[in-house]
Design brief:
The protein is mainly beta and 138 residues long. It has no helices and eleven strands. An eleven-stranded antiparallel sheet has the order 2-1-11-10-9-8-7-6-5-4-3, with no helix packed on it. Strand 8 and strand 9 form a beta hairpin. The radius of gyration is 15 Å and the shape is globular.
Length: 138
């Protein structure tokens, strides 16, 4: 997995750093859930995280729950759905003490590759700043 991350989100900076890493993904419940263990050493420090993704047959949507070893808590879920090789997920978060909106976009053009982008909005969703991009390959 190739990672590209903005050094200082929501600061007006356009300076990025890159790093590589591998993840371990496990499918659960015949594909209605999966869990990802994420660990990386970045120029900004070590990241250890866990993503739990759950599909709701009732709503047809997925929820993504994230936990970091830094906090030891489960963040509020991101909610979204997949359509035609693209998914958008939205949620709320706090960044450097201020409330923000959070967006994930997943895209895929091949069975063995996909792209994930994270963006922050500090103005209620009027504008978005992409701050992390991952390119996955099997």
């Amino acid at each position: 997995m190739h990672n590209k991350r903005l050094k200082q989100p929501l600061s007006g900076s356009s300076e990025w750093y890159t790093f590589e890493r591998a993840s371990e993904e496990r499918s659960l419940w015949n594909g209605q859930a999966n869990i990802e263990e994420y660990e990386a050493q970045t120029p900004a420090g070590r990241i250890r995280g866990l993503a739990l993704r759950l599909y709701s047959p009732r709503s047809g949507q997925w929820s993504i729950h994230w936990s970091s070893s830094t906090t030891g808590t489960l963040d509020a879920p991101m909610i979204g759905e997949f359509r035609d090789g693209r998914a958008e997920f939205y949620g709320q978060d706090v960044f450097e003490g201020r409330a923000i909106l959070l967006r994930f976009i997943w895209t895929s053009d091949a069975a063995d590759a996909c792209r994930w982008e994270q963006a922050f909005s500090a103005d209620g969703g009027r504008s978005w700043e992409t701050n992390w991009i991952m390119e996955f390959t099997r």
